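Re: [ENG-882] Designed sequences occasionally contain unexpected residues at chain ends

Forwarding the minimal case from QA. Structure tokens:
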């Protein structure tokens, strides 16, 4: 009998703790598959954030390090500078990266740290109760914006990828999504390019993945995927924002 599917060795056997319909699991699998395909699992050190993916160290089958809230890029910088031969990545949500960790990600990119960041943007704080995040859309309801985000008070949602792409140290910046099968395939391709960039010693790379949060959005998993497509993508357009010519 022909084998048509095989579980990636990049993930452990521990069940995910994520809510039903959460797409963190999909993104975990894509990262794990890429690391396995590049044959670098034994040489990889990941940095877990504070947020819904705080337990990522239990799921990735490589060395992992926990960081304080928002400090994953700073921790990854230290790891990479001490172990320049290792593949180092951070896995962060939008609350962790774009709010309390904004300074860390900006300066890591500005310095051109040779690390890879997987940035999961679901436009809300997931773990702590559904509060408004820097990426929450205009008019989007959250526990701290029950009438919808008021931009006259909270400002416009932050486009992190476009901001980082202005920095000379950022060598690969791409925004992708996991709202359908075709988008998932493109996301894996972008993640692989980002890690290949690190392996070639080019500089800082980040892949922003638009994701869902059915629990805090108050939608079913299927409705959440549709909401992402119809509301998030128009404001956060998909595509490559910064890529060296040699890896295009």
């Amino acid at each position: 009998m022909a084998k048509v599917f095989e579980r990636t060795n990049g993930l452990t056997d521990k069940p995910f703790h994520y809510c039903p319909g959460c797409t963190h699991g999909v993104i975990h699998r894509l990262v794990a598959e890429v690391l396995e395909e590049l044959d670098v699992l034994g040489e990889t050190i990941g940095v877990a954030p504070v947020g819904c993916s705080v337990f990522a160290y239990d799921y990735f089958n490589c060395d992992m390090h926990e960081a304080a809230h928002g400090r994953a890029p700073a921790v990854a910088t230290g790891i990479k500078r001490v172990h320049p031969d290792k593949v180092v990545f951070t896995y962060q949500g939008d609350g962790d990266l774009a709010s309390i960790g904004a300074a860390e990600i900006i300066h890591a990119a500005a310095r051109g740290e040779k690390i890879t960041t997987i940035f999961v943007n679901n436009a809300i704080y997931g773990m702590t109760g559904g509060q408004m995040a820097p990426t929450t859309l205009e008019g989007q309801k959250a526990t701290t914006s029950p009438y919808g985000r008021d931009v006259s008070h909270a400002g416009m949602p932050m486009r992190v990828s476009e901001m980082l792409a202005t920095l000379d140290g950022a060598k690969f910046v791409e925004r992708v999504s996991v709202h359908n099968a075709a988008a998932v395939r493109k996301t894996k391709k972008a993640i692989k390019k980002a890690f290949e960039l690190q392996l070639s010693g080019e500089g800082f790379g980040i892949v922003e993945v638009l994701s869902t949060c059915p629990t805090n959005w108050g939608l079913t998993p299927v409705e959440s995927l549709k909401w992402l497509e119809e509301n998030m993508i128009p404001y956060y357009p998909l595509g490559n924002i910064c890529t060296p010519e040699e890896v295009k």
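QA comment: On inspection the terminal residues look reasonable. The beta strands are 44-48, 63-66, 87-93, 116-121, 170-177, 204-210, 239-242. Proposing we downgrade this to a documentation issue.
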